Automatic annotation (TrEMBL):
Name recorded for this polypeptide: Guanylate kinase
Matching SMART domains: GuKc
Signal peptide limits: none
Organism: Paenibacillus nasutitermitis
Family: Belongs to the guanylate kinase family.
Domain Guanylate kinase-like: 8-184
Record keyword Transferase present: yes
PANTHER family assigned to the protein according to its UniProt record, in alphabetical order: GUANYLATE KINASE, GUANYLATE KINASE-RELATED
InterPro entries from the UniProt entry: GK/Ca_channel_bsu (IPR008145), Guanylate_kin-like_dom (IPR008144), P-loop_NTPase (IPR027417)
């Protein structure tokens, strides 16, 4: 008989910054009724970002406190800012809804895979360097932040081969359609196991 954990998937959206991970994850997540698990971050919100929607923005002091209590299941430092996912948030979301999604860098995706094994499905979203740069400019992200993010582009792209699925993102509607279909197959398998 299947263990209840076999029916809980963690869909992890990863890939280079600006590739479209958030846009796609939120669209697919809302179509399929998945619960989003938000990261905690110590950086300041950028224009247009909303606390509780883009991240839980917290102070470095609170982050340290939570980290010292072992709250974060994975935690990374990027450009002097800390980012992490709380174990409790994943557990609570599992209790409310069997399947969840989150958006992290390659390091986080690999860490979650190590911890949760076959429950984790890594979805790699990508576009070429010029395209992700242009998208970030269009969003109004400052030149130095874009430059810092682009310095990780090649490393981010190298995670492609480790992910369960990879999707080029140029035509947004097409990418969302492809990913929705892919995730529906996991959810269908999930329903069949329940029958
Ligand atoms: N296929 C696409 N065509 C054109 N624009 C797109 C496409 N996909 C996403 N975008 C736009 O690109 C920008 C970056 O997308 P998004 O924020 O989803 O990327 P991300 O990978 O989560 O990176 P970031 O960390 O910068 O948020 C957004 O303005 C989004 O609307
Ligand atoms: N491993 C993790 N990576 C995370 C987490 N939250 C966000 N991120 C990734 O960090 C970079 C930088 O983000 P930015 O919003 O400041 O530009 C980006 O790739 C995010 O996806 C996390 O909890 N763990």
């Amino acid at each position: 008989m299947a263990d209840s954990r076999d029916r809980e998937f963690i869909f992890v959206f990863t890939g280079p910054d600006g590739s479209g991970r958030k846009t796609i994850a939120d669209s697919v997540g809302s179509t399929l009724g998945l619960t989003k698990v938000l990261s905690y971050a110590t950086r300041k919100p950028r224009p247009g970002e909303v606390n509780g929607q883009d991240y839980h923005f917290i102070t470095p002091e609170l982050y340290e406190e939570l980290d010292a209590s072992g709250d974060f299941i994975e935690s990374v430092t990027i450009n002097s800012n800390q980012y992490g996912i709380r174990d409790n948030d994943i557990r609570r979301s599992f209790r409310n809804n069997g399947c969840i999604y989150l958006i992290v860098n390659a390091e986080g995706a690999d860490m979650l895979k190590q911890i949760y094994g076959t429950q984790v499905v890594r979805l790699f979203i990508y576009a070429d360097r010029g395209t992700v740069e242009e998208r970030q400019r269009q969003e109004g992200i400052s030149g130095d932040v874009i430059e810092e993010r682009l310095s990780r582009y090649e490393t981010d792209m190298a995670a492609h081969a480790r992910c369960e699925h990879a999707f080029e993102n140029y035509d947004l509607a097409h990418t969302v359609f492809e990913i929705t279909n892919t995730l529906e197959q996991y959810l269908q398998r999930n329903l069949e196991e329940r029958d």
